[in-house]
Write a structure and sequence with these properties.
alpha/beta, six-stranded mixed sheet, six-stranded parallel sheet, 21% helix, 28% strand, globular, binds ribose-5-phosphate
């Protein structure tokens, strides 16, 4: 009889009880043990594994898990990776540049993954089923949950929900679909891997209104900080920042706090602003 076997890595310990053991050899190699491995043959297997932080290490561990599971001939393998690293490099800008988002999806598919379940995946710009790098992906959006949490902050006050760039427009579609227009610079030689923001503009009414700026992720925080700053300079009453994935690099939370005391994130990545949980969206898998 076919059943569902859930394999949970210790990276998910805050949400589910782990049943995969991950340790380390003295030289830094990863040691992986799946005590239930003999049960996966012929079954639908769902693997829960976070890939951030320490994404490069996490990917190797995941490939080891996938290979071990695949060798047992399961009926299917579904992966749950809440935040997909490398998702921002979905386009090639330079000659010879690796399109890492595509490469990672392709690697996972070839390693045996039949379907990836992830959250507000940067390169998808829409909720639902998709395919990228030959990999079937289900993209779950946390937009509605983040807006709901922001309502608690604003209380009886009205607020507008806006995206800081076109890519995040789908997150605010049901709230009017307003978005800033963002243009990034080209890569600088000495800083490959990051393109500074050239300009960020809004063409909607701001004065005396409350705003929730909603994005798929706060990484360096530069996008969110610039958006909040523009809104405040244009006379916004109060502003709130929310994102599905909270990386909060380079202490950007401290810079965000200069504009707002409302910073909301999910627990797709562990962070101090994770007030909304992805757990309810995973429980029925
Ligand atoms: C961009 O295209 C995304 O939607 C986010 O706005 C962006 O990735 C956030 O990055 P950062 O926090 O570094 O500005």
């Amino acid at each position: 009889m076919v059943g569902i076997i859930k394999l949970i890595s210790p990276t998910f310990v805050d949400i589910f009880e782990p049943n995969i053991e991950i340790g380390q050899f003295p030289d830094g190699d990863s040691h992986v043990r799946i005590p239930q491995i003999s049960e996966v043959s012929g079954q639908d297997v769902v693997i829960f594994h976070r890939l951030y932080p320490k994404q490069n290490n996490g990917i190797v561990v995941l490939l080891l898990i996938l290979d071990a599971v695949k060798l047992e001939n399961p009926k299917s393998i579904t992966l749950v990776v809440p935040y997909l690293p490398y998702s921002r490099q979905d386009k090639k800008k330079l000659n010879g540049e690796v399109q890492s988002a595509y490469a990672l999806c392709n690697l996972l598919r070839r390693a045996g993954c039949d379907k990836l379940i992830t959250f507000d995946c940067h390169f998808l710009n829409a909720e639902g089923q998709a395919e990228f790098g030959g990999l079937k992906i289900e993209n779950i959006s946390m937009g509605a949950e983040l807006v709901k949490r922001a309502k608690q902050h604003f209380g009886n006050e009205d607020f507008e929900v806006v995206a800081p760039d076109a890519g995040a427009t789908y997150l605010v579609k049901s709230q009017g679909g307003k978005a800033f227009k963002k243009v990034r610079q080209e890569y600088k030689d000495e800083k490959i891997g990051y393109r500074e923001i050239e300009s960020l503009e809004c063409n909607f009414e701001v004065k005396d209104k409350n705003f929730l700026v909603l994005d798929d992720m706060i990484s360096t925080g530069n996008t969110m900080i610039r958006a909040l700053e523009i809104l405040k300079l244009a006379g916004a009453k109060t502003v709130c920042a929310a994102s599905t994935h909270g990386l909060f690099l380079f202490n950007c939370a401290d810079r965000l706090k200069k504009f707002t005391n409302c910073i909301i994130s999910t627990d797709s990545i562990e962070n101090e602003f994770a007030m909304v949980s992805i757990k309810d969206r995973l429980i029925d898998l």
